[in-house]
Amino acid sequence: MNCVGHIHHGLWKHPRDNSVDYHKPAYWTELAQLLERGLFDAVFLADIVGVYDVLGGGIEVTAREAVQLPVNDPTYVVPIMAQATRHLGFGVTANLTYEHPYLFARRMATLDHLTSGRVGWNIVTGYLDSAARAVGLKQQFDHDDRYDRGDDFLDAFYKLLEGSWEDGAVLADRERGVYADPARIHRVWHEGPYYKVDGVYNLTAPSPQRTPVLFQAGASQRGNRFAARHAECVFTGAPDRAGLARIVANIRALAVEAGRRADDVKVFSSLSVIVDRSAAAARDKYEDYRRYASAEGALAHMVSGTGVDLERFGLDEEITDAKLEALYPDRLRRVGEARAGRFPPGTTRRQLLAARPFGSQQQPLVGTPSQVADEIARLVEETGVDGFNLTRTVAPESYRDFIELVIPELQQRGLYKTAYEEGTLREKLFGAGQAHLPARHHGASHRSWQRSAA
Ligand SMILES: Cc1cc2nc3c(=O)[nH]c(=O)nc-3n(C[C@H](O)[C@H](O)[C@H](O)COP(=O)(O)O)c2cc1C
């Protein structure tokens, strides 16, 4: 993420952590080259619009612990990293609620051109009222409405990127003096419940992938249905293997219901790893990092997505549904069941803090290279997950440790590639010749020029 504190809050204070340099180009080029050395498929850039201002009704903890504030725009670091690498992909998060498909399609296509087809879009719909207020709304749209808007947004987006310019519309023919053939560039009309595009031509010529690889990260059932229709990659997380297996199975079943194949959607689980050559050294490293972690930062992060100001509860006061209902009567409709369910019966503020010893609800996997590889292999086997999204702890040390210690171990076991394939990000993830959305993806149905040419 293009900011200081991302998931494991407080670790920016560690003397070897360099995330305070997030605004310098060298931070990004060095990171990209390191990840490419580790043969990572992509660097995933989370993002947030709005600030975490719910805990205590302000940004006291957020600012002190740099909880995703300040945050720079994630798109601009992509060309910088692309310039310094050849294969690494880029998963860029953008909240569609505050974009318009016409301009956003141009931004994504531009990135796809500049990276030779290495771009993905992590589609999010947001969860912060502060973002809505920042653009003049009273509060966010309701949870399911946000996904309904997303469906409509994507239809317009596909029409622009898939349906406007035919393959071969760009001739760049100096002799005939024809750059692009106007007969092969089509107007786009879209009149949906939320977005309207009135007979315009898309601004950009087809980029290598046309539509960027579509990622999605949502935890509700409405979010999973949205993923089943649009996403090619889903980013998720669960506290244990059984929970992860349920999420993976649910997404695959919903994809099939939506007319796709179960393996058309790849599922990546978040994972943080602290590894060293011996178990004792790994444990010491964990303890060293942990001294800097901020459970309060983690709480400021978490509660903002639920809209619940926990400082309205005593440290040991039970947070019951009845109290939440009295304080926030429209909570479920506003935040969805995934976030509303974050206060199971018996929860207190003290417990929530204690459950975040490493500045996040996510606990790292701590061990030797072979212990970490064993657990990764078990996760894949028992849950059906396709891969992992490695969360930084102390950066870039945690990436370097993983690359130098765990990846060789995974390679020895035949569980990790030893070289990149050629091609776009979509081809690297789904195979040669698959630069574009497959024909059975909903977005491909908007290539109307293909139907009329057939
Ligand atoms: C693993 C994971 C990662 C996410 N990353 C982001 C992010 O970077 N930026 C963002 O605005 N929302 C992010 N979200 C939020 C969702 O994309 C979604 O908009 C929000 O959670 C509400 O939908 P839901 O109720 O379906 O989860 C993430 C969610 C999950 C589960």
TrEMBL record:
Keyword line: Flavoprotein, FMN, Monooxygenase, Oxidoreductase
GO molecular function: monooxygenase activity; oxidoreductase activity, acting on paired donors, with incorporation or reduction of molecular oxygen
Superkingdom: Bacteria
InterPro entries in UniProt: Diverse_substr_monoxygenases, Luciferase-like_dom, Luciferase-like_sf, NTA_MOA
Pfam families, sorted: Bac_luciferase
Binding positions (FMN): D47, T93, H143, Y147, S220
Every Luciferase-like domain range: 23-386
Signal peptide span: none
Similarity comment: Belongs to the NtaA/SnaA/DszA monooxygenase family.
Classification via PANTHER family: ALKANESULFONATE MONOOXYGENASE-RELATED (PTHR30011), C2H2 FINGER DOMAIN TRANSCRIPTION FACTOR (EUROFUNG)-RELATED (PTHR30011:SF16)
Entry protein name: LLM class flavin-dependent oxidoreductase
Species, as recorded: Massilia forsythiae
